[in-house]
Design brief:
Order of helices and strands: HEHEEEE
Number of helices: 2
Radius of gyration: 18 Å
Number of strands: 5
Distance between the termini: 50 Å
Largest sheet: 3 strands, antiparallel
Bound molecules: zinc ion
Shape: extended
Strand content: 25-35%
Number of domains: 2
Length: 113
């Protein structure tokens, strides 16, 4: 592996990403668990009919986002596509938490409205 080849660069960037994630977790500890978690969101997976685990979702920043543009958080968007256009709907604001369920079999996530 030569110093300037893409594989070496990728490994160096991955190492930097891990260092940044470690530094970020030291500087900005994750939020404490909510002492009053949302009520259980019990649903069957709409994709495969499997069992779902109840939990929450949150739009959060990433180490790479921190690396490139500092602290930033993006909202979560839903895009509806038609043959001639698309429209988007804001699902979660940055750092907003919402009840959800995740299928243990196929990974489908259902977010409560
Ligand atoms: Zn499923």
């Amino acid at each position: 592996m030569a110093a300037g080849d893409p594989e070496t660069k990728r490994a160096e960037l991955d190492a930097l990403g891990r260092k940044l994630a470690s530094l970020r977790s030291k500087l900005i500890p994750p939020p404490a668990p909510d002492p009053n978690p949302p009520p259980s969101f019990d649903v069957r997976c709409p994709a495969c009919g499997g069992d779902c685990e109840s939990g929450t979702v949150q739009a959060d920043g990433t180490a790479w986002g921190f690396f490139w543009i500092g602290f930033s958080y993006s909202p979560l968007w839903f895009w509806r596509w038609t043959e001639s256009s698309s429209e988007r709907r804001r699902i979660l604001d940055p750092r907003e938490t919402r009840s959800s369920a995740c299928c243990t079999q196929c990974g489908t996530v259902v977010i409560q409205g």
